[in-house]
Amino acid sequence: KCYVVAQFMRGLGVPAEAGFCDVYGLDDEMLAMVPQPVLAVILLYPQDRKKESVASPSSTVESKLRGHILTDFTNKQLIWILPSVLRFLRRMKKWKRLILLLFLLAIQRPRME
């Protein structure tokens, strides 16, 4: 299981019934190990922190989510996760969907430093 991504999604309000797992390859044997059905594939990759800080010094999103402080999620990584969240939201009730979208907009505001 992808513990970090799962915890982040739980903090966004995505219910525990949405599972996350690692995909180790795109060949048939590796894809056969992925639990079905799949709503989305999230590509996460290491970044060069030096380049990232030079490119956008204020791009780190720091949010307090249900008592946990999450750091080191850049705007780019958060935007890549959003399509997965939105696919899952189609199955949620409208009021829950609205609350989550408002929260996502709130954490994307630029910080004043």
Automatic annotation (TrEMBL):
The keyword ATP-binding does not apply. GO terms for biological process: ubiquitin-dependent protein catabolic process. Residues 1-113 form the UCH catalytic domain. Keywords: Hydrolase, Protease, Thiol protease, Ubl conjugation pathway. PROSITE patterns: UCH_DOMAIN. Pfam families: Peptidase_C12. It comes from the Eukaryota. Its EC number is 3.4.19.12. It is an enzyme of class 3 (hydrolase). It catalyses: Thiol-dependent hydrolysis of ester, thioester, amide, peptide and isopeptide bonds formed by the C-terminal Gly of ubiquitin (a 76-residue protein attached to proteins as an intracellular targeting signal). The keyword Ubl conjugation does not apply. InterPro entries: Papain-like_cys_pep_sf, Peptidase_C12_UCH, Peptidase_C12_UCH_sf. Belongs to the peptidase C12 family. This is ubiquitinyl hydrolase 1. It comes from Oryza sativa subsp. japonica.
